[in-house]
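User: Sequence in, structure out. Go.
Assistant: Echoing your sequence, followed by the structure tokens.
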Amino acid sequence: MLRALVLLLAALILPLILPVQALAHAQLRAAEPAAGAILDAAPAEVVLTFNEPIGALQTRLFGPDGSAHDLDARADGPRLVVPLPDALAEGTHALSWRVMSDDGHPVGSTHVLSIGVETGAPEPVPWSAAVARGLLTLSLVMGVGGALWARLSQTRAPAATVWALRAVAPTALLLIATQAMDMAGTGTGALRSADAWDAALRSPVGPAAACGVLAGLLAQRRHRVPVFAAWGLAALSFAAAGHAARAEPVALMASLVLVHALAVTFWAGALPVLIVALRRADAPAQMQRFSALAVPMVALLVLSGAVLAWRQIGSVGFLTSTAYGWAFVTKMALLLGVLAIAARHRLRMTPALAANESTARTRFGRSLRVELALMIALLAVTAAFRLTPPPRAITEAPASRSELHLHAREAMADIAPIPGQPGQNRLEIVPLDGDFQPFTPLEVTLYLSLPEAGIERIAAPAEKGADGVWTAGQVHLPQGGTWDVGPGTWDVGRGTWSPIV
């Protein structure tokens, strides 16, 4: 028993006096590609190298749009090899990883890299929806407007008008489909989802498309009453959705959009019919009648457009400092060209036609075709407004800056995440002592994680500025949600902070 006691004491004391290697959590030593790298092309894999052998637990990749994909990683001694999917999207990706240390403790973090450009959480440019809106606009304006003037002038609608009316229903369906893709953010995959279609139909685009389809059907009738109803429904299609129609006060702005659409539909839609009417013997009378009706329509178009533009843009400076402003400037340049040609038609070409000048019909037809081309370009630019928010929406956007306070007995910190949204954020930190006085620590690092989404902690080391404020950034947060930041939670997207005492 004495020998057994001595052996037991020796077994307990010997590890304390012999030099042994201390086991600790695995630490990341290198990464390829490096954290924060902006690469020209997507790599085939990410390799993380640690200071000791590790075991793979979980790897999840978050794309620029916040979508998450679990990946199959393998451990190779101290290396974690993570094969990446093919054809990664351009933008910033966050690879959240979790491994098992040699001592059995799990550790994790998030590795950020960018393909092509560094992005936040950008909304994809809705090119498909803008193109669909443009096609429906052309179909409605040229189809319904042409049918309206054909009935008023008691002439036969030309082939261009007929084909435009036939295109209304398909382009309306295309608009709904692109809206579903735009809202779901999953590309053509949204077309297989009944929920995506339902959401698109319930959006303002749904009633707009429905009004358009009904207008296209009524405009094909031979009586004036259905055609006038079609004219109103076509204008209502434009007033049902869009930036301009949703501005406050909504009732006034939507009414102005309705008037604006009535005027442009009458004017632009009549042009193909007028080109064909030049072959008729009563062409001078038709041109004079159209000119008389077009003058009040142009006045309504200009007045309603001026009010809508003032409400949407608000400041002359925004004309050249925003994409919306440049689109508006382009539209105005085209409109001035159309107005100049229309004035020439009224003051010179129509009298020449009435005087039966020898070349009047040829010159008038050529000039009408130029006017029609400019009008189509103007309508296309109008559809481009779908691609960018108006300055009104930018200036009215609520500030998303939130102030966070980390509180402990001996040290505290005031933190301002900017803008406090998914994507790139700058973190401004003011360290405080226990008496709420600023002090200068040796270093400042924030750790952020989103456990519910499987995003391991993101280290955000900060640097002190000349004003005493420490800044960490840009820190890429792949998703919105309730993030853990020190002793509290920060709801990204809502800007709320819930401290844990």
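User: And one key feature?
Assistant: The longest helix spans residues 323-354.
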